Structures are given as structure tokens and as C-alpha cells.
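#structure-requests
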Amino acid sequence: MPTMDLSTSRRTLLRGAGLGVAGLAGAALIGCGDKKEDKAAPAAAGGSPQAAAPAAPKADERGGTLRTGDVSDLVWNTGWPFVTSAGLSFFDSTTMETLVEYDSTGAAKPLLAESFELNKDATKIVFKLKPNLEFHNGAPVTVEDVFFGLDLALDPKKFGATGVSHMLPFAKMITGRNKIDARTMEFSFDKKRVNINDLFTKLDVTHAASYPDLLKGKTLAGTGPYKFKSWTPGVGWELEPNTKWHLADKRGAPRLDSIKGRLFADGASAALAFEAGELDYLGNVTPANGIRFKDKGLMTVRPKNGTQYLGFNTKNPTLADPRVRKALYLGIDRARIAKDVGQGLHPVTVQPWPTTSPAFDPRMEGAFYDPSQAAALLKTAGFSQTKPLLISVSQTAGNQVAVAQIIQQNFKDIGVQTTVDALENGVFLQRLLSANYPDMFMSSHTGASDAPVSMFQWIFAHRLGDNPSKFDAQWYKDFIAKLEDLDP
């Protein structure tokens, strides 16, 4: 994940940063509280009809608390940051760092690494760590700590983690690793891997020796500009500045006094707290909760970098026929979803790629809605059902319940009966990671701005072997193999 620069001025951050939700589009609400937390936030988050984005800050402006919110409590024991974990996404870009990062042009540049070199045939890469790097707990950053992340990705349960690593396919590409000296390491790959930097921009580095405490939510040891201070289950968490940050001299020492996260029952409650001036920043905002702030300059929409999708259990006999799945694909009214749920903020599309991706195809920016053809396909396939098909969704994940309800009506119109199965977020996530849905499921992902082939290698919805749709067609394997030979 790219590093979010939280060393900048607080107000610059609030005006320009956006974590937005994955999927059709992401929205973030951005307010501006007072520099001191114990003062009221002046017209902070739309509290006044005249509220507007704050003026640019002075270069030396510092201090204050960034107050944010979420609807999912922190879930530590899945194996974060190497395994997906609810509620910890904000921590990725504030507390953790990787060996390399992508700059604004898409080029890889050193972050924790002092230097790196990929050989000509893209089968080996050598990294040299910066000297005197320290984790938040004062321990030195070592080559072994980097190796630890790969070990956990390969076998989370060995380390007490309950999840399945999204980086597993990338980790399996590494056939050899060698510690050259205290700061230098070499990785060998199973074949030419022109997109391997996508792994090393995602492989967070954390302190291996203290990782058991992270799994319990007691602490975390990263290298980023902010470090873990406290967590109260069901209430919230707090981060404090890392005064020894290795990039302080280049990017400025962390300028905030603290970052506080507060837990809410749902997105509507969080948006109301933002509107009342109780929060400065709110990511993962549904359009319905955020659209009213657009004209006040308090909302930013993240560019497309993924998709919200409906997945099918392809091993379910009712859904096994590709003609049935194609019929359901053609039966979804995406334009209505974009209008009614997306409030006109979402693009109408059937592809995850942003316009900057070499995989982007303008012909795929459409609704692809044809209920007549969908009904004809179902008839040709001899479709029948003995009970409604479940559309499983997370009850707290953005706008997915509302989208599922429109899809339910769409499917009814073509003769398919469904039930929306709204699950508690933790249950939904566990079923997703274990590929344990009986019929259909709705989720979302980012990662489409990486090399095109990377999305088919590490995005859980699409990758081979353990995707939640249990899809393993040979043509799909051949397709991915061809992509692996293309230099992005």
C-alpha cells in the first residue's frame, strides 16, 4: 500500500488526503477542527451552511489531534499487516512501511531500503536496508524481520494468525532468499517476474520478536511516522508521533500531536458525528452519507482503483453453468445502482482498472444491462431453483446492503429468486477468507493500479487456487500465465 504522508501539515492532510472505500468509487469527508482538541471545531464538518475547505496552512504549522472514525473495531489476530484485518486499514499508511514505494509516476523508489537492484532477466533482486533503522519499540530493523513477513504470509497459522494472507501467491514466487550481510538481502524468483515490485511495495516490515503482542492487540512495532499508543475495544484507538522517524529530515517530523480513531455503530452515525464537528476526517463514506458535503468542499472522491463485485460459488450446481452466471451478469442494472446508491459519484463500469492502467478499456465503461438476453440465457440453460439463492453481504461495509437489494429486484425481474443475507462484518470476513459462501457474495477490492497481472495473482477475488468463487477453469490459468510474460 502506498505510504500516506502524515508528516505534512494537519490541514494540508485534511484537505488533500483520501483513503476512500474500495469499489466503484471512494469518498472521504474532510473537515478541519481547531488545533487544540479541547476546543470546538469551527464549522468543522459541515456544521454551518457556509462551511468550506480551510485555507492553506503556514509552512511551520504543527500540533493538534486528527480525529477519525470507523464502523469496524480492530481485529488483530488475523495476521495483519500480512493478512487482511478489519478496522486496521488506517494503520497501514501511518504505522507501517515497506522496502520500496511507488512515486507519483508509478516508479519504485527506496523507502526502508537504501538501494535495490533487479537483475536484467527479473529473476533476482537485491535490497540494502538504510543504516540505523529502528522500530517504534527501539529494536533495530533487520533482514530477518523482512523475512518474517514472507514466512507469515506462507503459513499464518504457524505464528498464531487465523487469516489467509493476500500476499500468499507473491510469497510463493520467491524460491530463494539469502542474507548477504547485516543490511543486505537477495531474493530469487521461480521465473521472470517483471511485476515483483508490487510485492515489495506491499510487504510491510514489522518487528518479528514482538509480533505475538500485536496478535493480541497489545502493541505494534512498525517504522512509520506514527506509532501505536492505545486501544479500547468497542471504543477506539490512539496513535502518537514517532519522533525518531527515519524520514523526519526529508519529509518533516510528524506534525500531529496524535491521531484518534473512534468506533461507530454504522456509517450514518459516523457521518453525523462528522457533521457535528466531532471528527476531522472520515474515510470509507457511502455516497448517501457524504453527498451532502460535496458542495461545501468537505468531500473528496478517490479515483477508481478496484471494484465492488458480486461473486458466485461456481461449485454450487445451481450456479455451475456459465450461461447462468452470464445471465445474472447481464441482469444487473449498474446504471441504477450508480444513480440511486452512488448518488452519481460512481462510474458505470464492469472493469476495475483506472484510466492510467494499461489494461483499461474504454469499451468496458458501460452498464452491460440486458434483462431480455439474461432471461433467454436462463431459459436456454434450463435454469431452475428449489429455494432462493443467498446474496451474502457485510451489514456494515459501506453501501453493500443497498446495492444487494437492487440486485435482488433485478434478479427477480428475470425469474431468479434471492435473499439478501446481511452478516456481521467479522463473520462475513471469515467466510470470505475461507471461501465458505453457499451461493453468492458481495465484496470489493483495490489493487487495480498495480501491474495488471498482479491483480490476478494477489487480489483474493481473482487469484487462482483459493479464490472465494472456487473458480479454477483451465482457460483462466492459461490467461494468467500469458499475462505473466507481459512487461507492464
